[in-house]
């Protein structure tokens, strides 16, 4: 998938699906994930994720983990 990143502020951004590269994937073009960074640990961060789509216009929480920058 190809996602457009829209920064809202220094600790929050939206990912909007622009292109799907795999057939039968449970994401559609236009679906959005809101990411709120809650903690920074060295080159990693923890976040709260909320996904929005046609079936869930008010959003639903997605389990998140630790995301790290690969060097």
Can you put this structure into words, describing what you see?
The protein has 71 residues and is an all-beta fold. The protein has one domain (2-66). Helices cover 0% and strands 65% of the residues. The protein has no helices and 6 strands. The chain has strands at residues 2-9, 12-19, 32-41, 44-53, 56-62, 66-68. Strands 1, 2, 3, 4, 5 and 6 form a 6-stranded antiparallel beta sheet that branches. The radius of gyration is 13 Å and the shape is globular. It starts with a strand and ends with a strand. The model has no long low-confidence stretch (mean pLDDT 93).
Can you tag this structure with a few keywords?
71 residues, mainly beta, six-stranded antiparallel β-sheet, 6 strands, 0% helix, globular
């Amino acid at each position: 998938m190809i996602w457009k990143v829209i920064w809202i502020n220094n600790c929050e951004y939206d990912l909007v699906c622009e292109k799907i590269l795999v057939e039968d994937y449970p994401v559609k073009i236009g679906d959005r994930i809101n990411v709120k960074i809650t903690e920074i640990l060295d080159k990693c961060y923890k976040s709260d994720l909320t996904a929005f789509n046609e079936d869930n216009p008010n959003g639903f929480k997605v389990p998140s983990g630790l995301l790290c920058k690969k060097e």
